[in-house]
Design goal:
The chain has helices at 3-11, 17-33, 80-88, 110-121, 123-126, and strands at residues 40-44, 47-51, 58-62, 69-74, 93-95, 99-103. It is α+β, with helices and mostly antiparallel strands.
Length: 134
């Protein structure tokens, strides 16, 4: 992990760190399982950011102004959030066309988040498919 990304994780409150690390771990697991190549891990807009060559950038963050929520951000110029909304509006909450909003006091819906991350990490391959091939 780059030192600036590690520093950012260290700045999150202790109860928030494992929540964000769980999403980070899913990203790395998916990339390894699907042979997506190296992951570029950096800070974009001050948030931990993840990108593979086949995908669209995924960012994660927690913000003090919304202490009970944490977020997975996606490129708002893609069909990702529209697709996630179509597939998972019964499970997930969204912020416009850019983010999945998660509650710090609720369990992470791992299978749903995993599918969303998979679609984002493979976006360049599936963007032409209805519902991104989901």
């Amino acid at each position: 992990m780059e030192s600036n990304v590690q520093l950012k994780f260290n700045l999150y409150p202790e109860p928030i760190q494992p929540l964000l690390f769980a999403i980070r771990a899913l990203i790395f697991d998916i990339a390894a399982e699907q042979n997506l190549g190296d992951i570029e891990e950096t800070l974009k807009w001050g948030e931990p950011s993840y990108l593979v060559k086949t995908g669209s950038t995924v960012r994660i963050d927690w913000k003090p102004k919304s202490p009970d929520q944490y977020f997975i951000f996606f490129n708002c110029k893609t069909k990702l959030i529209d697709t996630f909304r179509e597939l998972h509006s019964d499970v997930l909450e969204f912020q416009g066309n850019r983010a999945i909003v998660l509650n710090v006091n609720s369990p992470l819906p791992i299978s749903v988040i995993r599918q969303c991350l998979e679609l984002s990490l493979n976006y360049k391959r599936v963007k032409h498919l209805p519902l991104l091939g989901a």
